[in-house]
Design brief:
The chain is mainly α. It folds into two domains: about 110 residues, Orthogonal Bundle (Rna Polymerase Sigma Factor, Chain: A), CATH 1.10.1740; about 80 residues, Arc Repressor Mutant, subunit A (Orthogonal Bundle), CATH 1.10.10.10. Helices cover about 65% and strands about 0% of the residues. It is built from ten helices and no strands. Helix 1 packs across helix 2, helix 2 runs antiparallel to helix 3 and helix 3 crosses helix 4. The longest helix has 20 residues.
Length: about 200
């Protein structure tokens, strides 16, 4: 075929893959493997578990490739599959958070630097899985509220509220001393003043 796979959109790739183009499917895997592993790794004990979940994600995508609707984002669909696969694995075996050394190793191979620093993301990894997911998808993957809602099977309002609460919990983790409270937007009663979700 006469096209460059790295120059076409995700949705065009998905269409080609659905038509049986193996190279298009391989390009989808190339584009999304690392970001999905990073997303899942925050919820697993071992890096190989994250890789297994991502491999299962791509297998499920491949099995259902014909049912992909091009009116939706391929990125959202893949993250939805990964999220649900991760939840299933979590139910089977409660994961232990990835070690800081493994996270550092994974970050060293990343092509994209962490936008707000390792310190904040290490705090996020220690939060509840849903807090981690909503913060990761919003700030690491730069997804819109409606995309996150589809992935997490929640309403947009529920995602906004959850994101707001997760940011507040993160702010409390960051600002643990009374001296830093005023810098972080706390008053003495423990209220947090953080930006509203759009």
């Amino acid at each position: 075929m006469d096209y460059k796979l790295d120059t076409i959109t995700d949705e065009e790739l998905a269409q080609l893959a659905a038509e049986g183009d193996r190279a298009a499917f391989d390009e989808i895997v190339r584009r999304y493997c690392r970001p999905l592993v990073q997303f899942v790794a925050g919820r697993t004990a071992v890096f190989q578990d994250a890789e297994d979940i991502v491999q299962e994600t791509f297998l499920r995508y491949y099995r259902n490739i014909g049912s992909f609707d091009n009116h939706y984002s391929l990125k959202s669909w893949l993250y939805t599959i990964a999220y649900r696969t991760c939840v299933s694995a979590y139910r089977k075996k409660r994961p232990i958070p990835l070690s800081q050394e493994a996270i550092r190793q994974m970050s060293d191979t990343s092509t994209k630097a962490e936008p707000t620093g390792d310190g904040i993301w290490s705090l996020v990894r220690d939060m509840k899985p849903e807090d981690h997911t909503v913060l990761w998808l919003r700030y690491k993957q730069d997804m819109d509220i409606d995309e996150i809602a589809k992935i997490m099977k929640k309403t947009e309002t529920s995602v906004r509220v959850h994101l707001h609460r997760a940011r507040n919990r993160l702010a409390k983790r960051i600002c643990v001393s009374p001296e830093s409270a005023s810098v972080c937007g706390y008053d003495l009663n423990g209220e947090v003043f953080i930006e509203r979700t759009e």
